[in-house]
User: Which sequence fits this backbone?
């Protein structure tokens, strides 16, 4: 049974097996430089993996956006009595989410913090977590402008192209959580990441939708801190086995950063292939992941309070659906 028939908010039953590759394609973010050594090694790794689910990226945003819209949380009636663990997590308030999944990591050295100081300028920043429903319109727009500032060119140069309306729609997906980094004095957002507990090809993951830092915050250790929050959530959420994200292959700095953070090309990452009439499809993005726990012992590895998750041990890959 396809992964898309399981689980959470985005991968919904009506989509085919290719949906996750498609949806993943719509989660790109990037930076400008082209094809570094890092990126080629990632490509090689990716191409060594089986990727029969590969598909073109055309129409990805709309598919992703459509699945986000709302009905995606509906379960087949047969299982309606079994709560899906990630749905339950996605229903938590922001306070519950922080308390349950960011506060007491047993494995990660970076616990949740709400303040951060720039190591060289000494400027102070506040950190907070919000789901889109709790974001001010100004905050959402500031995040959008930051994506535009750091990555618009990469979208424009990709097969996916830059579609501001689709991007904004995706950014409003209810199950996302934003971690905002605001300059204390001005309240301006200078960096953010967004994440979602979801399923990709049947794998329960924390998907990193975006991570963007204004240039003066790059190279300061802040990006590593933000990524560590995502691994903390994953470590505290037993069904989740990986942190996953999508990166343009042209984003050499991003690829190098993720490699340093322990990410590798995932088995579902697309590989080049020959289409009909000899046309060659060369993916311009890679799906990266960092394994947090093995699927088999998923429920047992964290000693955090799983009771708060009401059924966290339930497997997403319940093929009985
Ligand atoms: C991609 C991105 C998030 C990576 O963040 P980054 O800060 O540039 O990451 P870097 O690895 O370059 O910076 C880490 C560097 O910070 C410095 N650093 C780390 N911890 C530090 C600390 N505590 N104090 C001072 N400096 C520190 C180090 O120089 C480190 O490099 P090193 O590990 O080689 O020594 C960022 O460049 C960005 O926002 N890019 C634009 C948007 C984008 O492309 N997003 C990704 C979409 S997929």
Assistant:
């Amino acid at each position: 049974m396809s992964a898309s028939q399981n689980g959470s908010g985005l991968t919904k039953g009506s989509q085919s097996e290719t949906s996750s590759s498609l949806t993943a394609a719509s989660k790109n973010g990037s930076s400008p430089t082209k094809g570094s050594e890092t990126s080629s090694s990632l490509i090689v790794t990716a191409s060594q993996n089986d990727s029969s689910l590969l598909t073109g990226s055309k129409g990805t945003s709309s598919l992703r956006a459509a699945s986000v819209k709302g009905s995606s949380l509906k379960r087949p009636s047969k299982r309606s009595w079994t709560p899906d663990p990630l749905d339950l997590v996605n229903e938590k308030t922001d306070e519950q989410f922080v308390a349950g999944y960011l506060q007491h990591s047993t494995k990660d050295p970076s616990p949740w913090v709400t303040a951060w100081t720039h190591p060289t300028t000494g400027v102070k920043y506040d950190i907070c977590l919000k789901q889109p429903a709790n974001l001010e319109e100004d905050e959402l727009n500031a995040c959008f402008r930051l994506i535009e500032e750091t990555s618009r060119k990469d979208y424009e140069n990709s097969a996916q192209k830059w579609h501001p309306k689709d991007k904004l729609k995706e950014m409003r997906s209810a199950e996302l959580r934003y971690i905002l980094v605001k300059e204390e004095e001005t309240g301006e957002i200078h960096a953010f990441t967004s994440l979602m507990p979801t399923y990709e090809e049947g794998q329960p993951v924390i998907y990193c939708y975006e991570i963007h830092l204004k240039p003066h915050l790059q190279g300061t250790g802040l990006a590593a801190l933000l990524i560590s929050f995502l691994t903390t959530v994953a470590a505290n959420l037993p069904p989740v086995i990986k942190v996953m994200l999508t990166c343009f292959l042209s984003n050499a700095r991003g690829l190098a950063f993720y490699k340093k953070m322990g990410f590798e090309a995932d088995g579902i990452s697309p590989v080049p292939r020959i289409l009909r009439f000899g046309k060659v499809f060369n993916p311009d993005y890679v799906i990266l992941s960092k394994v947090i726990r093995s699927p088999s012992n998923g429920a047992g590895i964290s000693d955090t309070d799983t009771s708060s998750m009401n059924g966290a041990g339930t497997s997403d890959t319940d093929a009985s659906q």
User: Anything to note?
Assistant: Residues 29-31, 119, 150-151, 211-213, 218-221, 223-224, 247, 251, 253-254, 257, 260 surround coenzyme A (CB under 6 Å). The chain has a mean pLDDT of 74.
